[in-house]
Design brief:
The protein has 363 residues and is an all-alpha fold. 76% of the residues lie in helices and 0% in strands. Helix 4 packs antiparallel against helix 5, helix 5 packs parallel to helix 7 and helix 14 runs antiparallel to helix 15.
């Protein structure tokens, strides 16, 4: 098996490669040590750009079958993790049923190959995120409790990720105090580190989601100021990174806060910047949701010409990016209501609920 340093050098080369299939052609990439690091790298890629990362994730399964020393503990763990990571890639691209199938395969492989509790805890974490997408919070919380016991027992930084996801689930079910407590514990558990992309990602997610929850319940100016400070802190983490879903989500979140503070021109510009970024990354659901927030602002200001153009353009973009039929029907309703100038906030909320099951936060 390669040394850790050599495996790291191989992973570093990936950024200069254009075709993921090239990884299948050279035996140096069939090493279990390389694949373990590659799977870690895929999680970071998915955090930045889930659409671009999907094709790189898809080679993880064939790579796991080509591994030298296939019976080693690392190789066996990689076989389970490959299905777990491709499941997450599919989930982040809103292909939920395919993600569920991958997680089921990963669970069967874990049982048949006898991989470690840490591998199982990682899979539980990913499964719980999918349960939340399907609004099954009871099962999600049960899986997260089991994952907490696993990671607490070994002092794993994955515990921070579990806490973020638990808070995310609490926020989705309007249990805001529990959500804030979970995000706060995650911030204490995992400190950002320049040498650990995973620690930075987990810390960023905790700050992002905490800001989102505070903004959602930001009925007081003090709450909104806190949410704004947290959002700017999270944006500082990403200052030197390339454009990503995380960066644009924070711009979007700042727009939500500014709209609640009645800084309408600033909110409009922030929504437009985030929308442009999501279009560039080809993320249909994010494009739709930020457009709906911008549309709500235009509705409040009674700017019907802008609202009509926005609804029409968003429908075309959403359709061109291959989004699902239920979302298209909802955006058609939005478009029709704007054209007839009968749009209300009630209709907007109905459309939001149909476009995607995801909270505007991040997990």
């Amino acid at each position: 098996m390669h040394s850790l340093e050599y495996s790291r050098r191989l992973v570093a080369r990936i950024s200069s490669m254009r075709n993921p299939l090239d990884l299948l052609d050279k035996q140096s990439y069939w090493d279990p040590g390389f694949l373990a690091l590659y799977l870690d790298e895929l999680d970071e890629m998915l955090f930045q750009d889930p659409v671009a990362a999907l094709s790189w994730a898809e080679v993880a399964i064939p790579l796991s079958l080509l591994q030298v020393e296939p019976d080693s503990e690392t190789a066996r763990a990689n076989k389970v993790r490959a299905y777990s990571v491709i499941g997450t890639a599919l989930r982040r691209n809103h292909r939920l049923e395919e993600a569920r199938n991958c997680y089921e395969v990963a669970a069967r492989l874990h049982r048949s190959l006898g991989t470690s509790s840490l591998v199982w805890g990682d899979l539980l974490l990913r499964l719980a995120a999918l349960r939340i997408d399907f609004h099954d919070h009871r099962r999600a919380q049960a899986e997260l409790e089991e994952a907490t016991r696993i990671f607490e027992g070994v002092g794993s930084p994955k515990l921070g990720e579990v806490l973020v996801l638990r808070g995310f689930s609490f926020a989705k079910t309007d249990r805001y105090k529990l959500a804030i407590d979970s995000f706060g514990r995650a911030l204490v558990t995992v400190k950002p580190s320049a040498t650990s992309p995973a620690a930075q990602r987990i810390h960023h997610s905790a700050v992002h989601n905490l800001a989102f929850v505070v903004a959602q319940r930001g009925w007081k100016q003090g709450d909104l100021q806190l949410a704004l400070r947290l959002t700017r802190e999270a944006r500082r983490f990403l200052r030197d990174t390339r454009p990503s879903i995380s960066r644009y989500s924070l711009i979007w979140l700042e727009g939500v806060i500014r709209a609640q503070q009645s800084y309408h021109p600033l909110a409009r510009n922030l929504f437009l910047r985030a929308r442009k970024g999501f279009i560039r990354l080809e993320l249909p659901y994010e494009v739709a949701l930020v457009s709906l927030d911008l549309g709500e602002l235009y509705l409040f200001l009674q700017e019907w010409p802008r609202l009509k153009r926005l609804a029409g353009d968003t429908f075309i973009i959403f359709r061109s990016l291959g989004a699902h039929e239920e979302g298209l029907a909802a955006l058609q309703l939005w478009k029709s209501a704007t054209e007839s100038e009968t749009l209300t906030r009630v209709i907007l909320e109905e459309v939001r609920g149909s476009v995607t099951p995801h909270l505007n936060g991040q997990c």
